[in-house]
Design a protein that fits this description.
The complex is a heterodimer of chains A (319) and B (395). Helix content of chain A is 51%, strand content 8%. Chain A is α/β, with parallel strands linked by helices. Chain A has two domains: 5-198, no CATH class; 203-318, Rossmann fold, CATH 3.40.50. In chain A, helix 8 (170-183) links the parallel strand 2 and strand 3. The longest helix of chain A has 20 residues, at 52-71. By secondary structure, chain B is an alpha/beta fold. Chain B folds into two domains: 2-39 and 304-394, Fumarate Reductase Iron-sulfur Protein, Chain B, domain 2 (Orthogonal Bundle); 46-296, 3-Layer(aba) Sandwich (Rossmann fold). In chain B, 51% of the residues lie in helices and 13% in strands. Chain B contains 20 helices and twelve strands. In chain B, helix 4 packs across helix 13, helix 17 packs antiparallel against helix 18 and helix 17 packs across helix 20. The chains are: A alpha/beta (319), B alpha/beta (395).
Chain lengths: 319, 395
């Protein structure tokens, strides 16, 4: 029996309107990556995480729970009629993720920040004032809620005098750069992705890694934001050899992630398809999006080995 | 509605034969247009010309419907405009009569009308496209716009044909199976009282209809019976014969078959003036040609700025073959007639925006459909619009 999709959407909506994020995440879990980095509070240029990397372990935990629920106890729960109705305490739905997993996500953001710094980019951070982008509301079709949320985010930026935002994942990049201006009058904040910046700045590699890899382009970088060449140059300058999949660049194939909370089953089937396809090119797969990473991870074991691009860039340009 | 659709889709997800059939076909279907476009590069130029021409037609649809109908009449055909499904079905029923043998070529518009089932009540109808014949025999629905039986495995095909009196055996090769189907349908073609087809394109300046096929069934359907009835959506109108040709072959190319084996151009009934230059109608081809321009929600949809973009669709089905969801469940997702990404817009047009909006939540919004669409239709935009509609007006 599949999940009651409309109810799951309502649940997500209620959680975002209640606490600003789709899932409960503490300030430490959201901002912990910046500890020890001495990043200034606010500023004209800020690094904006959009919380997506930080939320991923939580999303994985919920998806895992929903997936199992999908199988076993859904019928009964639905009959009881309580679970998905009205405002729901989502904490019933997941086990807090492992500390190590949260730390691993923090490390990814930290490396991105350090790479930017190494490239001579000066930026601040909003710490606990940083808000989730609301992209999920937009993707689910909750337009009014999205608009309201986006306005709050914009006001927060304005309050801090932000003029330029550096994004680190495809969904936040797209929604801020290409969607916010459609919904918010006077949204004139410049939005740039860290891969664009790093590639422009022409960092010189510290290490040469001669290795074959293949790339799984995220849909929103490749098809919506034209971020295709930048990650490739950054990787190739570090000696990596990219085995291009036929379905790459603008023709990339979705990982299935966008459906993971509405139908974990369909999302997993798509991920299987994509993982099998990529493994035909190279078993080492570079991903650039935390959602792709997490959805492909569900089926990756024994088929492909996933690495977030930030980790490889750190090996090349960081250490 | 959303939950019912979800249950159907999840059921399809675990249907082994469906998944097997789909994956075998998808592996062949997806690469084909890339090869074709690489080799016949002018096709890319055609897509731009067609898009431009469609804009012209859609912006002035009443004029183009009139112009087309006038030209059909001028070439001694009979032209009709059917606004609703009931009107269209009634027109065909009146033209055909009762207790007749009818051969039919595959047409999605006739699927919209449920025409085969409607006519079957008082007549005997045979689909002549092999894939569609399999759909008829299995009482299924077409799973892809140009390859309807894409989900039916060879084993199942043999079983279906056998059950309906086609003399096939289990160990037959595809070629042998096809030979038996040829034999089976041959006598239907000869005896048929009427042939029914769709149209891949229709030209406003000549009233000519264009039909593409590879099996040759359409030539038989439209030339052997004494009456030919063609039904096509009004969005298939092209301003000129040249553009109509381009639309027809471009659809074939993006569907993965190029050059198409047959392109029939039909402008009215067959005729001769070989005896004393007196023109008489009905020689070897049909004596009567009837062309029905079907609206079925299309003209109304033009008022909707977002949904109307789907009317640029030339129905090649490439968005379906490339869609991650469609690859798993075929047309199970999308609506009664049209499935997958294109199905969202088309379902909104022909079955109402409410129905389509309930189905839109299965879309990943990955944007692959837009990327591969020859008309560059922004299907993700349509689908976002439908998702938003759902929360505003349906739920």
């Amino acid at each position: 029996m599949p999940l009651p999709m409309a109810d799951v959407i309502t649940m997500i909506k209620n959680n975002i309107s209640k606490r600003g994020t789709p899932l409960p995440i503490s300030t430490g879990e959201a901002t912990g990556w910046a500890m020890d980095l001495d990043i200034p509070h606010g500023g004209e240029t800020i690094l904006y995480t959009g919380l997506l990397y930080q939320l991923t372990p939580f999303i994985e935990s919920v998806v895992d729970r929903l997936d199992k629920l999908d199988d076993e106890s859904l019928g009964g729960l639905l009959k009881a009629g309580k679970v998905f109705s009205g405002i729901l305490d989502i904490s019933r739905f997941f086990v807090k993720p492992d500390k190590d997993e949260i730390r691993e996500q923090h490390n990814k953001i930290k490396r991105i920040a350090l790479l930017l710094r190494k490239a001579g980019v000066e930026f601040g951070y909003l710490y606990k004032d940083e808000m989730y982008s609301g992209v999920l509301l937009y993707d689910l079709g909750l337009e009014d809620e999205f608009k309201k949320h986006a306005e709050k985010v914009f006001n927060k930026f304005r309050k801090h005098g932000v003029k330029k935002v550096i994004t680190i994942d495809p969904h936040s990049t797209h929604v801020l750069r290409s969607v916010y201006p459609q919904y918010i009058e006077g949204f004139e904040i410049e939005v740039k992705n860290y891969l664009e910046i790093l590639s422009e700045r022409g960092l010189s590699p510290e290490n040469n890694i001669e290795e074959d890899i293949t790339i799984h382009d995220p849909c929103y970088y490749a098809r919506y934001e034209d971020i295709i060449q930048q990650p490739r140059s950054l990787l190739e300058n570090g000696g990596l050899h990219i085995v291009e999949a036929e379905k790459s660049g603008r023709l990339t194939h979705c990982c299935g992630g966008p459906l993971e909370s509405l139908s974990p089953k369909i999302a997993a089937e798509i991920a299987k398809y994509r993982a099998a396809e990529l493994s035909g090119y190279c078993d080492k797969v570079v991903v650039m999006c935390p959602i792709c990473y997490s959805n492909l991870k569900r089926v990756a074991r024994g088929i492909i080995e996933l690495t977030d691009i930030s980790s490889i860039l750190w090996k090349i340009y960081g250490d | 509605m959303l939950q019912k659709a979800s249950e159907e889709i999840h059921r399809a997800l675990y249907m082994k034969s469906l998944r097997k059939g789909l994956s075998r076909s998808v592996n062949r279907l997806v690469p084909a247009p890339y090869r074709i476009l690489d080799r016949w590069r002018y096709l890319l130029g055609y897509t731009e010309e067609i898009r431009e021409a469609k804009e012209k037609v859609l912006n002035d649809i009443d004029y183009y419907i009139d112009a087309t109908m006038k030209m059909v009449e001028e070439t001694k055909g009979h032209a009709y405009y059917a606004k609703t499904k009931d009107e269209a079905v009634k027109l065909v029923k009146d033209l055909v009569g009762k207790d007749k043998l009818i051969v039919k070529s595959k047409s999605m518009v006739t699927e919209e009308l449920g025409l085969r089932e409607e006519l079957d009540r008082d007549n005997t109808v045979f689909e002549t496209d092999l894939g569609e014949l399999l759909i008829q025999f299995s009482r299924d629905k077409p799973m892809h716009t140009t390859a309807p039986a894409i989900h039916i495995t060879r084993e199942k095909a043999i079983m279906l044909l056998k059950r309906h009196g086609v003399k096939v055996r289990d160990n037959m090769s595809t070629m042998e199976i096809v030979g038996m189907v040829r034999l089976f349908l041959r006598e239907k073609f000869v005896k048929a009282d009427a042939g029914i087809s769709g149209a891949n394109s229709i030209a406003a300046d000549t009233g000519s209809i264009f039909l593409v096929s590879n099996e040759g069934n359409i030539r038989n359907t439209t030339s052997l019976p004494p009456i030919h009835i063609a039904i096509t959506g009004v969005e298939k109108i092209m301003p000129t014969m040249e553009l109509a040709f381009k639309q027809a072959v471009t659809q074939a190319a993006y569907a993965g078959l190029y050059p198409p084996t047959y392109v029939s151009v039909i402008s009215g009934p067959s005729s001769t003036a070989d005896i004393e230059f007196e023109r008489v109608y009905g020689v070897h081809g049909p004596k009567e040609v009837h062309v029905i321009l079907y609206d079925g929600g299309r003209v109304e949809a033009l008022k909707d700025e977002v949904i109307s973009e789907q009317l640029y669709c030339i129905r090649c089905g490439r968005c379906q073959a490339e869609c991650p969801i469609w690859q798993l469940v075929g047309n199970t997702w999308g609506g009664r007639v049209y499935g997958g990404p294109m199905g969202m817009g088309w379902t909104a047009i022909i079955e109402g925006i409410e129905k389509a909006s309930s189905l839109s939540h299965f879309c990943l919004l990955c944007g692959k459909c837009r990327e591969v669409c020859p008309m560059k239709i922004d299907m993700p935009r349509i689908i976002r619009y439908l998702k938003m509609y759902y929360f505003k007006y349906v739920k």
